[in-house]
Amino acid sequence: MSKTDESAEAKQDVLTERIGHVLKVTFNRPDRMNSIGGQTITMLSEIFLKAEHDYDVRAILLTGNGRAFCSGIDLKDVSSGETDVSGSSKGFKINEHPPFVMRRMDTPIVCALNGAAAGYGMDLALGCDFVLASDRARFVPPIRRSVLPESGGTWLLPRLVGWHKACEISLLGRILESADIERLGLANRIIPHDELLDEAMSWASELAGNPPLAMAATKRTMRQGLDSTFEANTSNVMAELMQLFQTDDFRESLVSFMEKRDPKYTGR
């Protein structure tokens, strides 16, 4: 298969749709449980990076077609050599994987967890800023495939649920059904399956209606705060605040409040 053919195939494997200021991104390999291969990984990172630098994209909605959200790295592609997960033989760098790109993004990402998320797919879901899960959703840790959560899971889980629960999830490898996901606080909300996409789009649209510069600054300083002292984070927050005071959006927030109307934010 030529590189052009591979690129065209990858485009079909990931669908994008702009809905107002929301970019909807959909895994589209329902016959393969939305498993993700090398070309798809590269394309997903490119989609995220392009959205991050597009002022008109103020929120991203990530979901999957069919029964699964993402069943992880496509093991058929790995065994055939189509996907290199080592980060060495084809110049593919681990920090260019989507979960690492997502971690550096200021644009909020809403996951509509429509079904199973296994291994890499679980890391992708947990790496989102919001998780709205179908009552058919499930998380499948990868330990029983004799691998570890290589794309952020070992960093995220202890912070999300604490050390002991993270060990229970990662080392026992039990499937987490939607009730477990809710009990552990790994989703913002469990939604009836048929209502999931509408509810997730509602959340994404609400985010897109908020001032984008303030959202980006808030997400950025919360992210930095995970690895800094209180004093250092407070200094970062004050620096961001001084910048926000100079923006058109801040002035619009004041004027719209005084005029008793909905604000119209421009991201400037």
Quick tags:
268 residues; alpha/beta; 2-enoyl-CoA Hydratase, Chain A, domain 1; 2 domains; six-stranded mixed beta sheet; four-stranded mixed beta sheet; disordered N terminus
How are the secondary structure elements laid out?
Blueprint: H1 3-13, E1 14-19, E2 22-27, H2 38-52, E3 59-64, E4 68-70, H3 75-80, H4 98-103, E5 109-113, E6 116-118, H5 120-126, E7 130-134, E8 138-140, H6 153-161, H7 163-172, E9 176-177, H8 178-183, E10 189-191, H9 196-208, H10 212-225, H11 230-244, H12 248-258
Parallel strand pairs: 2-3, 3-5, 4-6, 5-7, 6-8, 7-10
Antiparallel strand pairs: 1-2, 8-9
Helix pairs in contact: 6-7, 10-11
Going by CATH, what is the homologous superfamily of the largest domain? 2-enoyl-CoA Hydratase, Chain A, domain 1
User: Which CATH class of the largest domain?
Assistant: Alpha Beta
| Main sheet record | 6 strands, mixed
Strands, total number: 10
Q: Can you tell me the CATH topology of the largest domain? A: 2-enoyl-CoA Hydratase, Chain A, domain 1
The helix-strand sequence is HEEHEEHHEEHEEHHEHEHHHH
The unreliable regions are 1-5
In words, what does this structure look like?
- The chain has 268 residues and is α/β, with parallel strands linked by helices.
- It folds into two domains: 206 residues, 2-enoyl-CoA Hydratase, Chain A, domain 1 (Alpha-Beta Complex); 47 residues.
- Helix content is 46%, strand content 16%.
- The protein contains twelve helices and ten strands.
- It starts with a helix and ends in a 10-residue tail after the last helix.
- The N terminus is likely disordered.
